[in-house]
């Protein structure tokens, strides 16, 4: 294909600019600025992992993204750092439970998608991770319904909400300790379940390993797993699937 | 709500049959036969895990499912067991690489869905797991495109197929050894990536643990992970998402 | 106390034989033959771990136990070894699923205890371990009700049997893969749950480690755990508790 | 059964209220408030896991439970948090070693059960976990005898108390480091032993893993295990068994 | 010291041969044949690890050692390999339980040392490892007393032999499963205990890891540990200490 | 034997007091006070593990031991706690590197044993553990020679001291990181090597696991291992062996 | 740069063929055949991992490589498979210890490089891995000197060869069990040491994990590590460095 | 050889001093001062591991090295400690990101080697480890080019720099999280890749274990691995290889 394009340029059948664009398929893979292509290539703009970055570094990246009219989402930001950043970025919102800092277009405040993402959490101690998932999905354009404190040790609490969870587009299920909740939810619904193990627990929990293994070994179908405490990953995957379902077959 | 329904029955405003149906939302959660509800509740009929079941047991379950006009899919079936089963179930197909035994309606031979699932595999040794994913997705109604032997150690092999992978509805990415492929694919596409670690490798691979951890820690977004060697899980998740995208927002 | 007994012997107030019996409380701790005291000390006669013992060794031990009118229970016996042993011990029963070989008094065939032990198992692949638990409990004098293939991925299957499980004296809950079943059962019942993880599964199951950790981290109360695949341990604990409940407060 | 009940309502043979009660078997599994059913369903009222809950949240839950005349037990409460809570809940007791905060009916101060629970601990460093077990059992209605600092390295210390331990209804055995104590106790008694590994130790203790594995692999029968440092679990299981033995066969 | 020797050679005060012998202290560190110095340097001749060596290789090494009048001890030899070797080495003894092949001087048949090594084993399944320890110690010159099947679950069996074990020069304590025996023995004796974990057990035993960790974490003093199933290491250490005690302070 | 003693009492051949003493062999196993028998039974008085004990508790135990003229050794004592204790126990010595607090008889200041214990350490970071070993051995009556900073990466440093190490009665070899030093020392000496892994290092050192595994797998003979950072265990074992060698065969 | 090349083609300053060649830098990253570029890009032709490939597959790949005049090296080939392949590829050599099958140009039989690679192995059981390293380096153009059975337990054996190892261009050091050899070699030489852990050993060796961790934690500088049993990796790295040293600074 | 030298001394053909020098080849292995021989034996002077050493200790060692005109490099030095040391060593440089303190000859400020070392890092969080590698290589005489924030999730960022990385003499590739970067770089270059896993990440990253396993299992050739967070090891290996390539074949 390469030589063909070159020959067309040589023959004058193709302008240099158009040839560059055609070869830009390669650019897509390498030579473009990050910002322009991330959203085109990945569906969402670049998300910033805030841990280990200074307030100054974050402000720099955020301003660059915002300058190109992208939404901005920064994860794992402490309240102190958020306060520092918001001196400059005064129109940013900070969610202290989810530890997310973000900026959305005024006209993106309301979700434009049909349906909703269900965020289901086992215990109140899993709240921070669940909120990281929920707020991430909201920032990325989904509306979210939360079902918290519905762990398997009192199965009736979950069953009470079964119907509403079943009608979601996709579920994010967050659990620590034994991490059994995704298996039960997975057996009740006809949509994908993103399982998020948390490090909540003690002893043989081994900082979330127990819940992680439980979820990977789930005997229910339709479950896939992200890293321990990775609420962001759960919310991102859910929002991505939710968005694609809204685009429908036409988007393929 | 329970008392309300009962009162309507008492008042003659509601027939016993209709009341039973209304309360059957609860049946949905407990008292129905497996077969009828699985497909309704979960989107796909029950899949049979063949490992540790005798040919006789499998034949029994398969016949029951087929009797209700469901597709049948049995995983992890050895050639010997498949041959035994096919003496009775002569119209079943067996895929010896994927070790899947299945039966499909004649009118489901062709996928009725728009788009395709990409199954991407790092090395030729990952073939069996990749095929388990691919054939599972096909049996569940998706069409599949395979991209094999495109591991990261020769990144050009993957990039060569980048565009075709990008246009898939969803990707299943299968890799053993260091398991880095899903991270690279995840960075190239705007759809969900289901990562399947395999136990291919030796030494510090620890039977797939290495690839599993790699995938869980991926710095690319939009990746979720299933169990080691769980090609079925990869294919099931992909087919589920593919189906939901085809249904579109109307299905929500 | 020691000197007191000695003084009574010296004074002729106590015969040597009676003094020996009184000091036999210490015998209880050390100097008695195994056979006599095990049943008195532990409630059940010595159980023989069959793995790694030859048929000859087992026959020897069994005959010795039987000679003192004790029930005999030998665990982890292969069919081959069982056949060899039964040439000599022709009145022994062998359960090939549970791999248990045992002999019971004719008048102990029927359980004399009120109530029953519930043995609950997640999948058909957990059957061997569940049967080891069930038959162990039966040999030790309990009657058992079995609830198999009621894993959490189809929670309605379990709920269907909830009432009958709730009325048991004690439950043994057997599960492999993610091992979530004991948590759900534990949340439904008012009696102790002995959780038995099995090595059923693959990949990140790590030969039962996944199920083991799940059970140890259960957020339900009233659950305790035995070793992976230790169906015997599950059945023994259940039978012990069942027996004590039948003895009631008078036994304390 | 569902349709039968409905038909009786239709026929006027059953009032709406009675039908609701009959169908409330299902409530038992799902539609009731937590508080009412936990004690009926599980034998004990809901226990509150205090870790990660604020003083305000705990006060709220405690007040709700107390309002319905239930005992209240909150685990893993620091002295600071306990002091805060007791400003409002001035009649609550706090055990600073066990880190338990609780409220009991005036007429439940004395145990009404025959017999006692033995709490046996290997070393003085295991004291906190042992006390969590002991006080939990006491709050739940058992009387407890403590046998501390009787580790296996000086086996005579344990043997000195053997008889008194043997006469208990059930034992909780707490040990860190090598965790061998439950095996020795398990070989001496005719009642269930709940083994509680602690994280006491260093180096290859791996935060209690060593003691946990020891206990799971015990060659003594009648032992089951709870999570590392889970004194509460040990006490709860013991109190549950103790209570059931007191109810006796009539309770089955 | 080097220059001093050289000067003596230069001065004729020392012959070349004697100088070479004196400098052989350095040979000790590098330039000598293995055979001559091992026994001088290490107290015992070289022991041959038989696993993975062919019968021919073993015969070669054995003949070389024997030629210099050293005892020969080869570990981990299968019966088949032993039979092959003994066609040539017809005066070698083979112990099929310990899987040891060895040759001793006729005048070393009886131990010349005062006292004995105690080899204590928990269960009959630990026999092979215990015998590897016992026979190793015997070949290296100790007399051995065996105390088998004295596991902690029936502590009276061990206590029955306490006095005889206490009078040994050193103990090797072999145990699988929970591996608690060395802790109890360590608390009873005033001599070193070499603890040998075995891989006997299943499930959370993890091939001996459980017993290994137990022994490393022992709260008894005077215990040190060798590798899992390393009966040879246990016997070698015991024989070494036994020999040194017999040499007494004069040997220092 | 029990009945024999009783009969002698009955016959007046044996006084009650003497019978009690004879039966006290059993006391030896159970009914004695800790203090009296530990030194007789174990060779050394009870050592106090200071971690997790208050200054008051330690003072109490120490006074009790000292009252019976025993040496006192308390391990893992922080400087703060040591200072508090020494207000009362003003004649105690504190070693802040080894974190040991101890009291010795004035006439035990000098070792009365022939020979010495070699304490060999790989790096300067292993100093604290090495000193815990060295001072422990000194308090228990040995004289000690220290060989520090002789790790295998500069093998000449070790070889320089080879002769002096070889002449020791026993070696304690302390190493972190890769933990290879005991293997090299073990290959040079004819006496027992007690290997002490330390948690010094980072990354794949896993808090001493690396060094521990290295030492357990040593291909040199005559090595046994204690827990990670267990300098006390190393010193205790060495002093015990050193003492027994000094007693010689007469002590057996 | 892309547009510049295109413009030169348009202007006729550059032929299509030359432009294609210049843009082949990109080909380098994606669109070229594997065979042509691997050797140019990586210094060595593609090596074939034989495990899990059929004789037919291997023959196909080998023929393709050979057709382009590349050396052929296939790893992990069993004797059976090698014999099958050599029916067709009759001029291939097979090394049954190293399990390598390879073909070299007649004029590459002798190494054309100055200096040599040292392959150093601890024990005779490490031979297969050491030979995989040695033969790999030879096939890739290095000459190799072997130093086997020089483990650290007899350090003099290694020191005897120190000078010759020091003069090598690079060392591959192979060791199982405790894996300490690379640390000692690393401390003796002024060139890179590639450490190869082997799975030789038992018990707490954990299939090579012990040796792997030892090598990663080495306190000697200049050591880097490859996977367990990865003799090929060791040989490849060594040959690569050896080749680059021979090219010298001119090659940079 | 030993006797030959001795005979020459005896014959007067060799002076004592010269003989000592010849035999000093052995000194090289044992009896020399560290400082003199390290640089001769290892190519670089001794590097000081600063962690756990006091400022005073470091000053002492540094002065000694400097006195002999060696470069000085101290790793893992905190800013506080560096400030203290620089009061005395005022001409030392401190790099606070790499936490390295060093002193170089004025005439070694510029690298005298051809070519450069590429230090490639995946994310900004890996910066500290990458800088430790880069500055180490620079202090040891290499020039370094840095390629940071080129992780595999945006593969185009890496490919953009491919050519410049390919032209390096050797690469150090630093990555945390999934650690996939070395595999991709390894597939692009014809020189050795030293892979450095970092502990950057969370959850199933397990403090760098994930990245470590990934790198050990890399399917690309020419990769070897150092310990987690061991930037120093990466830089040292790279500088060593870079130096040897510059010496070329003449140095062999």
TrEMBL record, chains A, B, C, D, E, F, G, H:
InterPro entries: P2CMN_synthase_LarB (IPR039476), PurE_dom (IPR000031)
Domain PurE: residue ranges: 115-247
Coiled coil: none
UniProt cross-references to NCBIfam families, sorted A to Z: LarB (NF033503)
PANTHER family per the UniProt record, alphabetical: PHOSPHORIBOSYLAMINOIMIDAZOLE CARBOXYLASE-RELATED (PTHR43064), SLL1489 PROTEIN (PTHR43064:SF1)
Name of the protein described by the UniProt record: 1-(5-phosphoribosyl)-5-amino-4-imidazole-carboxyl ate carboxylase
